[in-house]
Amino acid sequence: HGTSKINAQGHLEIGGCDTTDLAKQYGTPLYIVDEALVRQRAREYVESFRASGLKFQVAYASKAFSVMAMCAIAEQEDLSLDVVSDGELYTALKAGFPVQRIHFHGNNKTPDEINMALDANIGCFVVDNFVELQLLNALAGDKGKKANVLLRVTPGVEAHTHDYISTGQQDSKFGFDLANGSAYRAIQETDALTNLELLGVHSHIGSQIFEVEGFQMAAAKVAEFAVQIRSELDVTFRVINLGGGFGIRYTAEDKPLPVAQYIKAITDAIKTNFSEANYPLPEIWVEPGRSMVGDAGTTLYTIGTSKDIPGVRKYIAVDGGMTDNPRPALYESKYEAVIANRANAPIEETVTVAGKCCESGDKLIIDCELPKAEIGDLLAVFCTGAYNYAMASNYNRIRRPAVVFVKDGQSDVAVKRESLDDIVGNDVIPARMKQAS
Ligand code: LLP
């Protein structure tokens, strides 16, 4: 997929770069990002919305992979940016991302974070709860500013990847419930707060979703709410944000639709529901994270050891693991891999790919079909662009890998590999512990 292919030497090549060369140049483990594929995904979203004729913003959910180089690409591709912490906001600001296109999410934004975002003049706060509503209004007032807000509502549509529960109230830490009247009260409250400008509402139904039905249901619920609010409170929403969650293909089990089909389903649902009610068509915003970067990422490892337990299982161990990709351990997520330096060798054995962390659960792929792996081989694990670097840790004091972006035969470091000095960089031995005993 993307620009990945097997070259004449039988090596995996991404973005015109031979992965065996990348391993030599940058070391392993290494996150490789196919820049052309990221840009292609961004364009698929933007072009699908253009085709709808609606006003829109495609906000890249930077939680999936927040680094300055990604912010630069998002800016160039006319995306907006969803941030959820001061760290993600700082990354965007340092990258020079246009502040008006930054949206700030989260269910517990601290006063410091809100002040930082107000000082930066970001485009929109997605307000999650009543405490935040009052806090944001007060802090904006202190600065003599008016903050644009979307209210996050819980639409009572929950996506379980393959089925949807449409109930009244959902047990969620996020948002104002539509079903129990709290969303209604939140609109009334916002309308009365003088330092807030209500743009509309936001809903997000889940992640790694394949079907369009959940998005259509959410669009219908939000439209119904908008119509009620307009007739009873005389408040009109200018923006409807339907969140992210568009699925990607990690393994053959996953069958996502092309981006264009999700966007068509969403924009059609909005058009139908709002036009039927004679409601001025709102702007539509979405927040894809995983589907923007997930399949553009590949992690390259070196196989260091193996252990054969006859009749039970063969392990091969790589020089990374749950520290650079915690998703298999956390969610039992599935991945596919190839031996990058013999990418067209025939499949010969089924092995379990283990990481190097000191715990048994550190397995990246259980029952991975590979050619006979040899020590020193390079293993490429696909679809690691989203929620991998973003969720990486220093468990066992393992250094985070470097990130390189590849395109047209060129490779460039976007994040340097951590050094051992980075590992101890924030450590301090309190003076009293240094005194001779
Ligand atoms: N908008 C909101 C409000 C969200 O909470 C999320 C994801 C997104 C957008 C982007 O969703 P996406 O398009 O990436 O599915 N760590 C988990 C995923 C957590 C998703 C959290 N929210 C994983 O590795 O699967």
Automatic annotation (TrEMBL):
List, alphabetically, the Gene3D superfamilies matched.
Answer: Alanine racemase, Lyase, Ornithine Decarboxylase, Chain A, domain 1
**Chain sites annotated for binding substrate:** 290, 327, 331, 359, 387
Identify which top EC class this enzyme belongs to.
lyase
What molecular functions are annotated in GO for this chain? diaminopimelate decarboxylase activity
Among its keywords, does the record have Amino-acid biosynthesis? yes
Cofactor(s) recorded in Swiss-Prot or TrEMBL: pyridoxal 5'-phosphate
The record's annotation in Pfam families points to: Orn_Arg_deC_N
The residue ranges of the Orn/DAP/Arg decarboxylase 2 N-terminal domain are 38-293
Q: Does the keyword Amino-acid biosynthesis apply?
A: yes
To which pathway does this protein belong? Answer: Amino-acid biosynthesis; L-lysine biosynthesis via DAP pathway; L-lysine from DL-2,6-diaminopimelate: step 1/1
| InterPro entries registered for this protein in UniProt | Ala_racemase/Decarboxylase_C (IPR009006), DAP_deCOOHase_LysA (IPR002986), De-COase2_N (IPR022644), Orn/DAP/Arg_de-COase (IPR000183), PLP-binding_barrel (IPR029066)
Which Enzyme Commission numbers does its entry carry?
A: 4.1.1.20
Which PANTHER family does the record associate with it? Answer: DIAMINOPIMELATE DECARBOXYLASE (PTHR43727), GROUP IV DECARBOXYLASE (PTHR43727:SF2)
Q: What does this protein do?
A: Specifically catalyzes the decarboxylation of meso-diaminopimelate (meso-DAP) to L-lysine.
The record's note on quaternary structure and interaction partners says:
Homodimer.
Q: What NCBIfam families does the database record attribute to this sequence?
A: lysA (TIGR01048)
User: What is the official name of this protein in its record?
Assistant: Diaminopimelate decarboxylase
Q: Which organism is it from?
A: Paenibacillus spongiae
Annotated gene: lysA
